[in-house]
Design a protein that fits this description.
By secondary structure, the chain is α+β, with helices and mostly antiparallel strands. It is built from six helices and 19 strands. The longest helix has 43 residues.
Length: 395
Amino acid sequence: MSRLSRHPIVALGVVLFFAIMALVVFRLSTGAKTDTAKTRLITVGVVSPIRQDLDIRLPYTADIFPNQVVNIFSRVDGYIAKLHVDKGDFVRANQLLVEIDHTDYQHAVNQAKANLSAAKARVAQQDAMVRNTALTFDRMRALIKDQFVSQQDLDNAQVNFDAAQAAQESLQAQVNQMEVALAQSETNLAYSYIRAPFAGHIAERNLDTGAYVSSATASTSTMSRGIMSLHDIHTVRVLIEVVERDIPLVRIGQKAELRAEAYPDIVFEGTVTRIVQALNRATRTMTIEIDLPNRDRRLKGGMFARVEILVGTHHQALQIPLDAVSRLEDTQYVYVVREGKARRMDIESGVRNGNRIEITKGLTGDEQVIVSGKDLVHDGTPVQVELLNSAKRET
């Protein structure tokens, strides 16, 4: 039996000695690592502020509207005899779109022409009567001077002449009425051929051949669905609601840029064309209309768009990346590097343009502004600097 087994107390003391020595060695080794971690510098990415012209833009979202929209109704009653166009077709101004059954209207025109001819014939017949009574009256006036006829005969001739003239005027009035009736009949016949009021695309077709249409629908309801809908998108319009504080900035003639969801890489340019000189009482906003040329007809009515109105320019504005700015309640600040340490600088900002923001107070432009790693530092933290590519940051 060994000596340690003979003396257990001695054995326990030896075990405790080695355990304590191991613990001391472990604490010394971890303490050294902690000291190393405390002295490690934080690497931060920095950029230098830039000075360049900064456009002031008012951003909005809006829907795109056609320049003109009309629902096509019939001005006469009848059944649709023929549809000459369908959805998606492009039509020219005055192009024939729809034919209403015009059989009855053609008969009405023929009847009106016959009535007019008869009325004119009666007028011609009465003209002869007027001439005859006029000759008789003239002869009576000549004969009464030599007393070959009595005064009664002269008076009768006068009465017959006046009556013939009155009858002639009545018949002529009937001719005028017949002419108006003929014109109305011809107008109704023309209305049975429905034509395009302007050039555009057929956006909707709501009725088919054989459907009955009534002029009463068009005259009593502007919201009813017509036979079809015609949209003019050669120019499109965008209506935006400008908040009250921005109203003084917007003027007619200012340029606007539009981006549609369908064409994310294309910027469409337009112009502020109309300003409604009144505010909506419910929203306290004012409607602004922007017109955009659309000759290739890529923009469609109903599309969603983002619009920016260029209302001015700040020349040589001091700008930094938006990611460099931190906020605490109402305070804005950035970190800059001075003498190897991060320093907090309170700032005031101005206009934002994309990923850049204008700095109006707090920076001179000579600083190294921390962008990457700003959340890892506080005022006085030692740092090491890595220059960032400004162009890369902006993208």
